[in-house]
Write a structure and sequence with these properties.
It is built from 3 helices and no strands. It is mainly alpha-helical. The model has no long low-confidence stretch (mean pLDDT 76).
Length: 106
């Protein structure tokens, strides 16, 4: 009759000892735990952002009028940009592919 209580007490003591040991761990095990926590956090953020993108895409497909109304209409060019730097990079025409090296067949 006392066996279930004995098993419970033994499990309680073992759990308390395990928690105390894990709290006192410093070094590679703690760093591994922090890395695992960071990986789980990164996966959660990635999953939530993917859900957000998918939801926005589906919303625009289902309600194209609402998406068009939400987009700002600009008819005037943006004059807030004042960067007028000129670079000395030559402009090349990339319409023709580069010639093949000697000795190579097409």
């Amino acid at each position: 009759m006392m066996y279930p209580l004995l098993v419970f007490a033994t499990g309680l003591l073992a759990g308390a000892a395990g928690v105390r040991l894990l709290k006192g761990v410093k070094g590679p095990l703690k760093a591994t735990g922090q890395q695992a926590t960071g990986a789980v956090r990164g996966a959660a953020v990635s999953g939530l952002s993917a859900i957000e993108r998918t939801s926005a895409c589906l919303r625009t497909k289902l309600e194209p009028e609402a998406a068009a109304a939400a987009a700002p209409e600009t008819t005037e060019p943006d004059t807030s940009v004042t960067d007028t730097t000129v670079t000395d990079t030559p402009v090349t025409d990339t319409a023709e592919p580069a010639p093949r090296p000697e000795g190579t067949a097409p």
